Amino acid sequence: MAKINDSFLFVYYLAIAFLVNSADANSYSTLGHDDATPNGSNFTFVCDPERYSNLGLDMKAFPFCDKSLSYDVRASDLVKQALHGVSNVGPGTFFDDLVPGSTSFPTVITSAAAFNESLWKTIGQAVSTEARAMYNLGRAGLTYWSPNINVVRDPRWGRAIETPGEDPFVVGKYAANYVRGLQDVEGTENSTDLNSRPLKVSSCCKHYAAYDVDNWKGVERYSFDARVAEQDMVETFLRPFEMCVKEGDVSSIMCSYNRVDGIPACADPKLLNQTIRGEWDLHGYIVSDCDSIEVLVDGHHWLGDTKEDAVAHTLRAGLDLDCGDYYTKYVQTSVQQGKIREADIDRSLKYLYVVLMRLGFFDGNPQYNSLGKKDVCSEENVELAREAAREGTVLLKNVNETLPLDSHKIKTLAVIGPHANATAAMVGNYAGVPCKIISPLDALSTHGEVDYQAGCSDAKCRNGSLIFPAAQAAAKADVTIIVAGIDLSIEAESLDRDDLLLPGNQTQLINQVANAAKGPVVLVLFSAGGLDISFAKNNPKIGAILWVGYPGERGGPAIADVIFGKYNPGGRLPLTWHEASYADMLPMTSMPLRPVDSLGYPGRTYKFFNGSAVFPFGYGLSYTNFNYSLKSAVKSKQIQLNKFQHCYGIKYGNDSHNPPCPSIRIDDMDCKNHKIDFEVEVQNTGSRDGSEVVIAYSKPPQGILATHIKQVIGFQRVFVPAGGSKNVRFVLNLCDSLRVVDYNAYTVLPSGGHTITIGDDIVSFPLNVSFSS
Ligand SMILES: *[C@@H]1O[C@H](CO)[C@@H](O)[C@H](O)[C@H]1NC(C)=O
Ligand SMILES: *[C@@H]1O[C@H](CO)[C@@H](O)[C@H](O)[C@H]1NC(C)=O
Ligand SMILES: *[C@@H]1O[C@H](CO)[C@@H](O)[C@H](O)[C@H]1NC(C)=O
Ligand SMILES: *[C@@H]1O[C@H](CO)[C@@H](O)[C@H](O)[C@H]1NC(C)=O
Ligand SMILES: *[C@@H]1O[C@H](CO)[C@@H](O)[C@H](O)[C@H]1NC(C)=O
Ligand SMILES: *[C@@H]1O[C@H](CO)[C@@H](O)[C@H](O)[C@H]1NC(C)=O
Ligand SMILES: *[C@@H]1O[C@H](CO)[C@@H](O)[C@H](O)[C@H]1NC(C)=O
Ligand SMILES: *[C@@H]1O[C@H](CO)[C@@H](O)[C@H](O)[C@H]1NC(C)=O
Ligand SMILES: *[C@@H]1O[C@H](CO)[C@@H](O)[C@H](O)[C@H]1NC(C)=O
Ligand SMILES: *[C@@H]1O[C@H](CO)[C@@H](O)[C@H](O)[C@H]1NC(C)=O
Ligand SMILES: *[C@@H]1O[C@H](CO)[C@@H](O)[C@H](O)[C@H]1NC(C)=O
Ligand SMILES: *[C@@H]1O[C@H](CO)[C@@H](O)[C@H](O)[C@H]1NC(C)=O
After folding, report:
1. Looking at the 3D structure of the chain, how many domains does it have?
2. The overall pTM is greater than 0.90
3. Of 206, 248, 199, 28, which Cα lies nearest the Cα of 123?
């Protein structure tokens, strides 16, 4: 047992020192390099035999340094030591955050729009390589509390920028791929000893759970109590986290500030220990959002807890690490007051130390020793940032083939709008210092003579006096490119939106400029959440609209590549772009996903909202045309039940439609070998090469009450040359793909006629499921 005295605190501080070194680092852009130490500092690790020889310490003698023992045993030994002898194993230079530059990839919402799993993983690998290099240079730690994988339940949420959108399955796939890119050490991906699997860097899926209100009309995340039906919890809020743990094998989960059904997320044993550890089998530690425990005491006033009660509750619930000072200040007194046992602390410490061991803090990680300055902001990584921005660009409108522009015909360009010369706005939040930002203006200037007019002094556009000069520029130019939209002054952490409109005078700017324009008009939009731009969609003077999210440091060149046809866009919207009136139909604080017709409650996300939208989830055009045809599909599945599998009733609107064995609970089934298998041919029938995102959905049998309209079950992005075709095959798990979460929160496989649709119903086929005994 750890002695509850200074040595406990020391061991605990040690864990904190290493693990809390990059709080909230959304690692697409938090790294940098240091010109002052081009060769890097020497590599050192706790069990380096020479490290403490001058203190007369033989590190080999400590069991926690014995490489022949398992990490579990070594961590247990460490937790038992009184470690003052090694007390100068400290943070060293790891906390030096004076890091001047690193590759700033597009924000997550933009990368998500690429719908390309391999891109997500590749970005993770590039980020972790830069992280390792910076670590070697003494300029970064190895734990990154990233990615943010909360589903965007409401279009007003200020942190949509950090997330992969509104679909729990797509969000989960993003999480699994990005986490594997960050964490996996090449060659050890398939190691079966998951408690010893080495880590390149440690990643963290956050914020668990039902966290998606930041500050809306005075309702703050610190005091918000999310009232969530268990059905929505299982189906929507927890699923990305489950996929992050099970498919990504993430080494950490962060719990959130808010309460869920009255209980602070970080103090809920069902959410933490029982679900994350018990059901999902996390290999790693659970950490609080920063100062969550203090928030629990001072913000939620939960159970009238004293500080000692609070740390006892969270530790017992399964919270291993406090990003804050409550554990260091109050755990000792909590033990003295008999509120927790030392064993509770030991258990958590072991989880923390095993992660440090897997990172190589104790034994080193020689395969990364050669990484240094050359690996940060490398040409390859910067090029990847540009590629990601191009892949994430979504073409929303393109009348009469306005785009791509023909360079030869364009001599003069009017480049207009508050984001035309965007720099910081492109990299969004949690950004480090980018290697080198190239603005849209810089990139477009290489294509002709540019007349730049901001049109607004900033995104809020409160002053209309700059519109007139912008319209004058448009009247003279061969083409007008308006770069508009929102930024962190409108949607951000602690800042939810009130409406879905463009702010201030931006609508006037766009309409007046379009009206005055001599040549074609292209509108480029920055935003994370959707914007009601019906006016531009319907304005015949606006020929083309592109959405770029917040495209990172190479956003400028990516936009120019798309506009001038060097790249054919293929991204898809990762969330629904609602009409402005949607925001008046439901408060942000109402958590239910399903519509309630009697209350006029419209439901949330494409899975449940059946009204009209400006652009639906998954929308995106191309400069070419694609057509699909179904090559092969298994259209019926008969599943043999054994005597332990029982039929489970689900609610149908019409009882006479209720099949004899309506469903089987997926918990009762061994589903590994039940697959859905189909293949579609994707033909490029146009005259330009292009990439197509093929999205497959399932629709449940008709008549089941209160279920989703459809759900994404798989997606693949494929490149198809002009006139060519490619066969795309999906082999998916049957239960994952056809699942329905019922009112009691059971995940079931219904019998009957399911439908698989690909694209927006371009191709669809029935899939009949029956059970036999
Ligand atoms: C880097 O390495 C070179 C050659 O080994 C050496 O001359 C130089 O002093 C080193 N610089 C630093 C800052 O260690
Ligand atoms: C790094 O440390 C090792 C072992 O202590 C030593 O042999 C080596 O010379 C050091 N390298 C540098 C560059 O300081
Ligand atoms: C998907 O991303 C990878 C980068 O990892 C890229 O090489 C590939 O071309 C992309 N696929 C498509 C079809 O765009
Ligand atoms: C790990 O497994 C995957 C999938 O089976 C395989 O493609 C990959 O090559 C394996 N990696 C190693 C290092 O064995
Ligand atoms: C956590 O859950 C496990 C079972 O999964 C149980 O054995 C253990 O006692 C729980 N720990 C706490 C602190 O509740
Ligand atoms: C564009 O922005 C950069 C950086 O903010 C600034 O230095 C530059 O002067 C701006 N360009 C124009 C034409 O205003
Ligand atoms: C609008 O901007 C113009 C030009 O910068 C300035 O003269 C005017 O005072 C501003 N008006 C307001 C209301 O801020
Ligand atoms: C538009 O600009 C005018 C004049 O500069 C200003 O008075 C008005 O408040 C602005 N409108 C909005 C909605 O910001
Ligand atoms: C598209 O072409 C049609 C037919 O030539 C024309 O009537 C229409 O105005 C054009 N629209 C745009 C936005 O260029
Ligand atoms: C698309 O493919 C289908 C066959 O799946 C075919 O019937 C149809 O004519 C094709 N459409 C185009 C525009 O090529
Ligand atoms: C229920 O379904 C049966 C059979 O299709 C039909 O005859 C009956 O009218 C339906 N009842 C209702 C209330 O829709
Ligand atoms: C969606 O709405 C349309 C028209 O209002 C209706 O016909 C359709 O059945 C609805 N679909 C679902 C799944 O509720």
Report:
1. 3
2. yes
3. 28
